[in-house]
Structures are given as C-alpha cells and as structure tokens.
Write a structure and sequence with these properties.
Layout: H1 4-16, E1 39-42, H2 56-68, E2 79-82, H3 90-96, H4 100-114, E3 121-129, H5 132-147, E4 155-167, E5 170-179, H6 182-194, E6 201-206
Parallel strand pairs: 1-2
Antiparallel strand pairs: 3-5, 3-6, 4-5
Amino acid sequence: MKTRRDYRESLGGLWSGRTDILIGTQMIAKGLDVPNVTLVGVVNADTAFHVPDFRAAERTFQLITQVAGRAGRGPRGGRVVVQSFNPHHYAVAAAAAYDFEGFVAREVEMRRDLGYPPFARLVRVVVLGTNEKRAREAAERFAGKLRAFLSVEDALLGPAPAPIYRLKGRYRMHLLLKTKDLAALRERLLKLAQAVSRPLQALIDVDPVNMM
C-alpha cells in the first residue's frame, strides 16, 4: 500500500469479505477495527530486539499487544499466533499473556538497574563529516572534553560508529550520555557542539526518539 486510497481499498476488502488475508507491516497494527478478523499472525516478533535501543522490549510488547487487539472483535472470537526466536523473553511472554503489569514491573527494574529513563536523562551526540578519520577524531575529542565535566553519577558511552554509519555521504559517530542533572551540563554540551569546526558538525539530541 502506497497511498491512502490503497489503504482504504484494502480495508474495504476486509470489511466486505472480498479479502480473506491481509499481509502488512506495523502500519496495520494500529486502528484496524474489522469484526470478521478471527486470526492474526505476527512474524519475527522479536526483530526489534536487535535494534540498539533501550526501548526495544517496550516496542516489541506494544507491537504484539496492538496486533493481537485486531483479532476477535466480532462475535466469532479470535486467535493470535506469534512467531518468536526468543519466546521466553519477558516482553514476548508478557504480551502473549496480556500481562501489562508484569511487563511494566520487569521493564522498570531493567531501566533502574541500567540507568535509563525515567531514572536518568539521555543525550545523544552525533558527529558527522565527509572525512571518516576526521569525524572519528572529532567525536573522540568531544568525548574527552565532555568527560572532564561529568559527575560520578553520569555515564558516557562511546564514541562509536552510529548504527547507520554513513548517510547522505557523511560518516556518523555517536555518543550517549546518561545523566540525572541535565541542567548542569546543557551549556557545556552546546559549547562543545559549537566548537566542532566545519565542515564537521555535532548534533545534540536530548531524550532521542531515534537511536539509529
């Protein structure tokens, strides 16, 4: 489906009964309310676990529960089949059991132990440049200078190549800062970013949504 019209036609087919099977991406996980859907399958449900993001378990749990909610909305009931290579992972197991409280308890415990939100603030710094060596060296300098201002409760990971290492002709190195006192570091971060000489560039993303 590439357009809104395609989307409407596909859903219309389900509603009218012309379509028996609909295959799609996460796009069909939300807002689909068709009473005659009695079977939903989730293929490779744990794919998100391989994404370097602390929210991977949360997103997997959300996806499975959202998709599961598409089945059984009519009088005939429904069934959900989930394919997973790690069925004992707490996110998959909790989603299969529809155990929201159990999932939240495990997720909160993990984030507290590792110092992730809501127990700390995250700042992602991405250093970009068309020259790979210079981008790496600039990221290392940035990290070295930043560490001088960190407290014992702060943690700095990296620099390391970003998961998407090269984008639009520019190499990307990133750092991840975990801190409980962002206000104390905000000005330092801005000054360090401004000190990165062109054509290199340093981007600061507070509480990043995308870790790629």
